[in-house]
Design goal:
The chain has helices at 8-29, 69-84; strands spanning 41-45, 50-53, 58-61, 64-68. The protein contains 2 helices and 4 strands.
């Protein structure tokens, strides 16, 4: 029996593509004075990575996420595309 409907993986991939393209656009427009507002955003995460030294194995954990106006616009456009498909 074939499963119909939208796939959650396609939503995840579309949102990820929207974030990446939005971040790329934010970097491109950061030097243009009229479009510099697209690169405004916040960074969340760890400033210094956490290190776990087990003697034989050393694990380093770190995560930093930067949200910009352009990446939020990319997420919204990706959600609209998902709803239209």
């Amino acid at each position: 029996m074939a499963r119909t409907g939208k796939n959650t993986w396609s939503l995840f991939l579309l949102l990820l593509a929207g974030i990446v393209l939005g971040s790329f656009i934010a970097q491109l427009t950061s030097g243009i004075s009229a479009l510099s507002w697209l690169s405004f955003g916040r960074t969340f995460g760890l400033d210094t990575p956490l290190t776990l030294d087990l003697g034989v194995l050393i694990l380093t954990f770190g995560l930093k996420i930067k949200f910009t106006i352009a990446s939020i616009i990319g997420i919204v456009i990706a959600a609209i595309i998902y709803r239209l498909l």
